């Protein structure tokens, strides 16, 4: 089986619907027929100021939600990045392989440093693409599920792996990006022309998995809509209704054209109520299971330790080969 690896940062106590439908749902599907490694990349979260107790809470919340969403510790290797020290060790080797110009061209660093000034951005943000490359290469990964906006990082990883292999001998598998399907692109409920994101100015447009059903119903019923009252998909003229149609279709499995027919002549109120019901009923069991996992913290941590133990076996072998090929003394 081809090996798949992907990671997610614990930057919030709750994933949102865009995370789930845009990426995590496909992580679950990839478990079948692939050797899947999924990691909570807590070290990457350190590029911004984080309270220690909050980092711990968010890491455990991320693990609980991943399992509740369908990431099986039996099918996949689920682990926390910081529990596998080989990530940091290989990250340094990747920093020594990368050029300053390559790192300086990475989009996220360019965007943040241009907005707030290079002096206010942490060095970790500049070097984190090399740690990300190490995350991938440690596991001899074949496929990396990513969104289109992460393509640049996969290309850097491929370049660094190829450069290392050509200089020091075959060491790393050259990974391919597995570009996630964009059919379920979920936008902000209050700004339906923008992607749903935790960094939004207001949380009122973000459907969070761990929010109560009452909160999410209120958010959906307050979602920004468009002129008129017909329920039809038109991203340019009716971005709000189009976004709600996408959410309903992605969760219910009903085609958008069928939903347009179902709600013809019913108006926005009835449609929003139905979307709210679909969202609540889909998220309810996920939230319930995640809360149960968080109540038994020892069991949850034991599952993560088991995953880290499996991950370290693979990571240690890769790092040992890299060191040997570099000429370090064993």
Write a short abstract of this structure.
This protein is mainly α and 330 residues long. It has twelve helices and five strands.
Q: Can you tell me about this structure?
A:
By secondary structure, the chain is mainly alpha-helical. The chain contains twelve helices and five strands. The strands form two sheets. Strands 1-2-3 form a three-stranded parallel β-sheet. A two-stranded parallel sheet has the order 4-5. Strand 1 (3-8), helix 1 and strand 2 (35-40) form a beta-alpha-beta unit. The longest helix has 30 residues, at 297-326. It is globular. The protein starts with a strand and ends with a helix. The mean pLDDT is 93.
Helix/strand order, N-terminal first: EHEHEHHHHEHEHHHHH
What value does the Rg take, in angstroms? 21 Å
Structural class comes to: mainly alpha
| Percentage of residues in helical conformation | 40-55%
Low-confidence sequence ranges: none
Order of strands, widest sheet: 1-2-3
Number of distinct beta strands: 5
**Main beta-sheet annotation:** 3 strands, parallel
Number of helices in the DSSP assignment: 12
Strand content: 5-15%
From the N-terminal CA to the C-terminal CA, the straight-line distance is: 32 Å
How would you state the average pLDDT, rounded? 93
Q: Give the overall shape.
A: globular
């Amino acid at each position: 089986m081809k090996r798949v690896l992907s990671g997610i940062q614990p930057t919030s106590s709750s994933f949102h619907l865009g995370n789930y439908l845009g990426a995590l749902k496909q992580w679950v599907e990839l478990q079948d027929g692939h050797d899947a490694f999924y990691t909570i990349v807590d070290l990457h979260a350190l590029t911004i100021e984080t309270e220690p107790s909050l980092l711990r809470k968010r890491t455990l919340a991320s693990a609980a939600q991943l399992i509740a969403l369908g990431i099986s510790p039996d099918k996949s290797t689920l682990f926390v990045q910081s529990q596998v020290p080989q990530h940091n060790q290989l990250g340094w080797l990747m920093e020594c392989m990368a050029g300053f110009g390559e790192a300086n061209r990475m989009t996220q660093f360019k965007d943040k440093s241009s907005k707030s000034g290079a002096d206010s951005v942490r060095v970790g943000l500049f070097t984190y693409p090399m740690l990300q490359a190490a995350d991938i290469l440690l596991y001899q990964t074949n496929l990396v599920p990513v969104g289109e906006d992460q393509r640049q990082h996969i290309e850097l990883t491929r370049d660094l792996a190829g450069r290392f292999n050509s200089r020091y001998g075959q060491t790393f598998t050259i990974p391919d990006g597995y570009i996630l399907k964009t059919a379920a692109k979920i936008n902000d409920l209050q700004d339906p022309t923008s992607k749903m994101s935790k960094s939004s100015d207001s949380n009122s447009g973000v459907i969070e998995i761990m929010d109560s059903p009452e909160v999410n119903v209120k958010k959906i019923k307050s979602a920004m809509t468009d002129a008129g009252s017909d329920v039809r998909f038109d991203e340019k003229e009716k971005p709000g209704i189009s976004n709600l149609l996408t959410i309903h279709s992605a969760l219910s499995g009903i085609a958008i054209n069928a939903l347009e027919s179902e709600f013809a002549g019913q108006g926005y109120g009835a449609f929003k109520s139905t979307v709210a019901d679909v969202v609540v009923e889909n998220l309810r069991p996920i939230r319930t299971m995640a809360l149960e996992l968080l109540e038994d913290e020892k069991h949850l941590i034991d599952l993560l330790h088991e995953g880290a133990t499996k991950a370290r076996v693979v990571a240690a072998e890769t790092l040992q080969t890299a060191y040997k090929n570099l000429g370090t003394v064993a």
